[in-house]
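re the bet — no i am not wrong, look at it urself. input seq straight from the record:
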Amino acid sequence: MTRRFKHLIVTRFNTYLYAPDAPLNVAPDEWMEHRLRLFASFTLPSLAGQTCQDFTWLLGVDPQTPDCYMQRLERLCAANMKLVMPEKDDDAWLREAEPGDYDLLTTRIDNDDAFHRETVAALHTAYREQCETLRRPWVIVFPLGLITDLAERQTWVMEYWCNNCPTLVEDRGEAKTVWYWQHDQIPAEVARHYIKDKPYWLQVVHTQNLRNAVQSSNPLRKVYQELAAKPEHLRQYGVDPERLPMA
């Protein structure tokens, strides 16, 4: 019998945005306006369009977020989406997972990226197939995705074995969540299960990126610019290719 599990998808929307040392290259209000457009165009429709909706989506919001933005986020909330306000060093994610004898799956997605519509279904299938084999904690990774350059209006296939949307599987009693480690610093002794049959995530490159770019010196990351995706492929990620926001 498959062990019971609960799945949380966790997104830091604007946590610490209003801290004095926030790493911003624009004013907070400008950041919020730009990021809300990306979120509504990519992340939100991709989660709303998942073929499997058996998950809770936690959106981490800075407690100092002005009411006008909180109200806009609340209006965007889907049925299985919840706003949480983690303080520094406070694990608000775990407060949303009741104690019990089950496995906790936590999946990270950034507020400007997207998932293929079958991503959650593939995660749950992989969990059921591997939960009796792999020692907890273990990680589910999709090495293949897409990368969209908004300025160029171009999308390519990308391979990244330490990408920023892993899923951590833990016993609830010992859970720390996927945010315990940086996505590229998960210890080697933590077992990985890779799902490689197609691209499962979409990374968006835009003017406010601090780290993401099409070109990179990272040896674990490769953009196949000879494998350009067609605009209609974005629809599999809940994205309307005719209504892409400005970069």
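see?? The CA atoms of residues 35 and 112 lie 7 Å apart. told u. also The chain has a mean pLDDT of 92. so pay up
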